[in-house]
Protein 1
Amino acid sequence: MCGIVAYFGRKHAQPILIEGLKRLEYRGYDSAGVALLEKGAFNITKTPGRISALEENLPEYESDSTVGIGHTRWATHGQPNQINAHPHVDYTGKIALVHNGIIENYATLKKWLIKEGCAFQSETDTEVVANLIGYFYDKNQDRNGRFAPKDCNRFEWAVQQALSEIYGTYGMAILCVDCPDMMIGVKKGSPLILGVGKNEYIIASDASAIVQHTTQAIYLSDGEMAIIDSDGFYTKTITNKEVQKELKEIEISLDQIELEGFDHYMQKEIAEQPVSLETCLNGRVDVKNGRIILGGVSQYLRELTRTKRIILTACGTAWHAGLVGEFLFEQLARIPAEVEYASEFRYRNPILEEGTVVIAISQSGETADTLAAIEQARDRGALVLGVVNVVGSSIARLTDAGVYLRVGPEIGVASTKAFTAQVAVLSMLAIELGRRRHLSTDAVQSLLRELMEIPAKIKRILAQTDYIRQIAQANKDHENWLFLGRGFNYPVALEGALKLKEISYIHAEGLPAAEMKHGPIALITDRMPAVFVATRCSQYEKIIGNIEEVRARGGKTIVVATEGDEHIKPYADHLITVPETCDQLQPLLTVVPLQILAYHAAVLRGHDVDKPRNLAKSVTVE
Ligand code: F6R
């Protein structure tokens, strides 16, 4: 949510910032801006709308400035207009900054600064930080009237003073006109990476804006700052203690973040699933010996096997994967499990008995609510494991141990390949715990054989893309849809509804199919498609009954069924088939046609599926 990028080096900063912002645009896209440090002043361009609009508004000549900061916004405080767009400059005109996060005590600080004579232009929380730094820099005194120490850098000192007043989250890049040879990056609760190239440095919210320039990076931890100057860079805490950081290799490559001939990232990521799942499973599944090898959590497997309760916590699509996980742990390992919305869990004062294990699931590893839920769990002494995609992300670092998804960057705002990998990782964990607790070797081997066949089976589903597109075409104008499933296909129904609503803006509701007659059946008409996920699994006969109930009321059905199921044909106005697999692994297959259906419905309705209205990837604010 919000992307920041900053450049300090010898090349022209402007094109590098624009390119970086385009890479980060999936994090927010309601307004954007850049500030270049040039001849003792800031040259600022800001605009509502996309990066393309910002480009159109840039001055005709290309600035030769080699230092600058840029921002693409997802509005939290104040409308997405030009004034509220970042960068923000302080009342003296000397400090400029870009910010990702939320300043919780901004209103109190703003009141105080106004009393002190600072003028404000915008409604944002960010401008308060700019003015706060500007105030301390200008006065050269802290709030108690103590002067800045003589031997310190006043800009750096003013930043530290300001941060000591702030509650909230931030990833920021900050410039000062009096210090053209200096740039400061600070982090707390929002992601921030410092790319270290040859005579150049790039601060960014994520590695996608850096990897084109360098693969060496420093991952700042919360409460740390990086100061870049003409001699190089150094890192310290925001309370002024020196810290040594290790240079790490960025693990993503440029081709992973290119469209490579696809129209949208979502389309590319759906199509990638046979390969991304193979990578996720690779080296972790030993069918011959009926074992799972998950190096990241191996030291905790004994504790996990003995646990009395597993709590899965996540948001959105990752929560749906968590619901599949709940069913998997219960069925395969016979361990009581429940999935919790991280946003609720964090405020509920949850009861975690001794020995409870918490599993946090997140693609980005930066979701604010999930991070807070993890902190809650850790405070109560629980072992917390992560199922995360982004290597080195905040959740990956905050958890005791974890398993990476290994699916490469997911850029489309609607999560697809991360969901299937999350389910695959939870399946592996549940099978391994089942093996350790009670499952026979035969049962484990049969599950693992099925798991290894999933990538090839997804390929067969992808081959039906044109046909599914026709179904989308026939139904795209309906404004209300129902998604229904039972057992392991119930979380898939929820996920199918979420996919459709978030990118096509069609109202869609996902339900356990049997719940329909407790209310929602009142909605059924021939203008409300009901999508049934009705594969041949343990509740097959039951869901056929539910389909009949809808059809008896004139409802139109789109049915996802098992290949070769002749019996179900008369129940479907549109029939999509998926290859056969066992009950527990159904979601890995049945979700794919629903992703394709949602994608095409949205494209046919003329929407930008990678940048859906009001949304952004990686929800780093509460
Ligand atoms: C929906 C979607 C979101 C995310 C949710 C959690 O397609 O992408 O619902 O799943 O915001 O994000 P992560 O997994 O990054 O924690």
Protein 2
Amino acid sequence: MAKITKLDDIVSLCKRRGFIFQSSEIYGGLASCYDYGPLGVELKRNVRKAWWKSVVQTRDDVVGLDCSILMHPLVWKASGHADKFADLIAECKKCNTRSRIDHLKEKSNTADDEHTEHISIDAAQAHAHDLTNKICPACGAVGNFTEPMPFRLMFETQMGANVDDSMKMFLRPETAQGIFVNFRNVLDTARVKIPFGIAQIGKSFRNEVTTKAFIFRTREFEQAELEFFCEPGTDEKWYEHWKEKRFNWYLALGIKKENLQFRQHDPDELAHYAKACVDIEYKFPFGSGDWQELEGIANRTDYDLRQHQRGIRTLNDWFENNNDLSKIQLKAEDPDYHKGPLSYFDQENKKRYIPYVIEPSAGIDRSTLAFLVDAYDEEQVRGETRNLLRFHPQLAPIKTAVFPLVKKEGMPDTAKKICNELKKYFNCFYDQKGAIGRRYRRQDEAGTPFCVTIDGQTKEDNTVTLRDRDSMEQIRLSTDKLSGYLRKKLEM
Ligand code: ATP
């Protein structure tokens, strides 16, 4: 029976095998920032690649985009982030630790409920929260908090060297807005017709109040987002389509069904612009096992495109106020907004409208963590513990390892030749160090699906041993068939 995975086991394997390191570790580390090591970078690239393949490459109704992280400050005014993207926090009067109030646990009820949406930067809202029974996660004091206050989540920076023309900028807190502001560009150049989607993978930044559990919640992270534009009235159909597609993506890449669920947002939990929203949740091994958001899928209606039409109308005020966002109010919406610059003209039916948007928004780091947790296994083999990562072949950082059984009789040369041949198609690793059993175990821990061993028989009949990571079964295969066989098994 597989042992219940603890996050500590994963963290230690990730460090030991070079998947993930603490950022700036030789300087004592930087909280909530992580670096991907040689195996981790391959794993994360494979997660990205699998998302892109499913959402863009294999469809004819989605195109890709790669936007800059720094964007015009008015983008964040129009999107609502400049005014609304904040968490309500309270400070513990005993130990001065600040916490998100929606993350605080009740004294009598320790359920970890983290599902509150970000709120408006409007202190009036803060008074509605009763913290008398809430526990400080740092010192355990109960009900000893300051009044809740809003804390802005966007990182600020400065652009330009001269005082006169320098501007306060934000690092993007989501990739989605880059897609909305390029809607017209894509429409005019890519010969797309509604319904169609624009997809993007990239870094986002949020000055999270509390970070959590390894790479689950960090301040710099990668998102994979799709904005799927459709005609109003067809939005519910597309919402269901993407719910199913995205859920099945995780299953197809090996996530166990019992660890994955939908959580529909209650109407009072929905962001003001969203018509519906559902989270895909994974049962992470925090505490006693926590269902946590892996991806959100929202029906964002026509909200964002309409907001950016207001943003464009506000440009004159922007110049008149010397690029000072704090002095700007968004202009009211044009009564003829549905004919605005971000509207769509349906040639066939001769009608113009602002499209609705379905948005599946996934975290690349968070899903990488889920894939690691789900693949992790320990089993007893002949009195020894075998640690392994049962990665789906598409995700495995190394696809095949090649070993000479011993360092003589020309075996290393043959093994290197085979390894170089296989490298043309996928990541292949050569290893001649240590006993063969130990070399197998090292690859099990890296999640390598296959190992190929060259031995004495290879010279005689041109066959090698092929070992399967999961079953540990070994078969003999002729070297001319090796590449074809592996590529089929690995779906490469
Ligand atoms: P939360 O309420 O947990 O802060 P959210 O609901 O605001 O998160 P979204 O804005 O919906 O998150 O972001 C979409 C996805 O991006 C999330 O499902 C998650 O996978 C990823 N994500 C968001 N914030 C972070 C973070 N701080 N670290 C890592 N991944 C993140």
